[in-house]
Amino acid sequence: MGKSAARLKDIAEKTGFSVNTVSLALRGSPRIPDETRRQISEAAEQLNYLPNQVAKSLVLKETKSIGLILTDITNPVLTAVAQAVELELSKRGYLTLFATSNSNPELERKMIESFRARRADGMLVFPCNHRKLDHIRQLRARNYPVVLLVGDPDAGVDAVCMDERAGAFKAVSHLLENGHRRVAIFDGSGQEGNREKIDGYKMALAAADVAFDDALVVAPNGHDVRSGYQAMEALAARDVGATAVICPTDSAALGALRYCVRHGIRVPQDMAIFGFDNTEFGEHAVTALSSVNYDIGAITKLAIDRVISLINSEGDLPQAEVTQVEPDLVIRESTAPLSAD
């Protein structure tokens, strides 16, 4: 069994002061003389005293901790977001509690309840499904501060996120403007109900008066490199004349690029490939990926601003707000005007 933690009583016995004086001194009370505070602080350090944060949080009704739930810690964008959130919260005096749902809705619910049991002051959540949010709406209805890091204006829950619909619209429009009329998309909305990218894709086609063709829509098994490779393999097998493809992530785009390299499909001459999120891996690929930029810094700061404002709000939470950051395109070597040869 480990050594028992030092108590206020132990410090009082060592210094000869009362427990109340020791408590006030360690809290920096101006009522305690400097010399007394110094003696008590030295004794606390010698005894390796640690304040009881649980008891303190019960008195103050806050733990200065915020939960962050990710869908996939191996996703490079989410890893970068986690780091940015931890750094920003630390600057503001908060501890970050991490959890990963592994895109499992039931595990997501368990993680939410776990953070509540640990009395986290609020939560930032990447939900598994952008549409099935009743459990999070119920959380907010109980005046619990929660901010989603993806969302849509009608969710009824606070959210700060990239406008993925606008990002897909811009990317597909760019390809169409460069002569591509057979633009494919790797669309995972059937699995997760996250329709923003496919909606933006269809909007861009309609704006350019290009007919939607279901044969150009491939449902990948995920968003990783392997899934991108397999989706490109499925698209190639259909032989539907695609000359460009928009992928759900840069990781999937790297898989598509790998398939093309292995099978003699020139990028971008034969197949233009557009990624999503603008990761370091995509930027430094053998053929650098064009991508929709995910402004991690801006989104992180806005999300933390919002969740802290909810934590500090008096009474019932204010009306939910959804802030969507419109992304820019980063054009690199994997896309080019449609070749005439």
Jot down its keywords.
434 Repressor (Amino-terminal Domain); 14% strand; Rossmann fold; 6-stranded mixed beta sheet; 341 residues; alpha/beta; 4-stranded parallel beta sheet
Question: How do you describe this structure in short?
Answer:
The chain has 341 residues and is an alpha/beta fold. It has 14 helices and twelve strands.
Explain what you see:
With 341 residues, this protein is an alpha/beta fold. The chain has 3 domains: 8-51, lambda repressor-like DNA-binding domains (434 Repressor (Amino-terminal Domain), Orthogonal Bundle), CATH 1.10.260.40; 63-163 and 295-325, 3-Layer(aba) Sandwich (Rossmann fold); 164-293, 3-Layer(aba) Sandwich (Rossmann fold). The chain contains 14 helices and 12 strands. It has helices at residues 8-15, 19-26, 34-46, 53-60, 76-91, 105-117, 134-141, 164-177, 189-192, 196-207, 225-238, 250-262, 280-283, 296-311; strands at residues 65-70, 95-100, 122-125, 146-148, 159-162, 183-186, 217-218, 244-246, 272-277, 290-293, 322-325, 329-330. The protein has a 6-stranded mixed beta sheet, with helices on both faces. A 4-stranded parallel beta sheet has the order 2-1-3-4, sandwiched between helices. It has a two-stranded parallel sheet with strand order 5-11. α7 links the parallel β3 and β4. The radius of gyration is 26 Å and the shape is elongated. The model has no long low-confidence stretch (mean pLDDT 90).
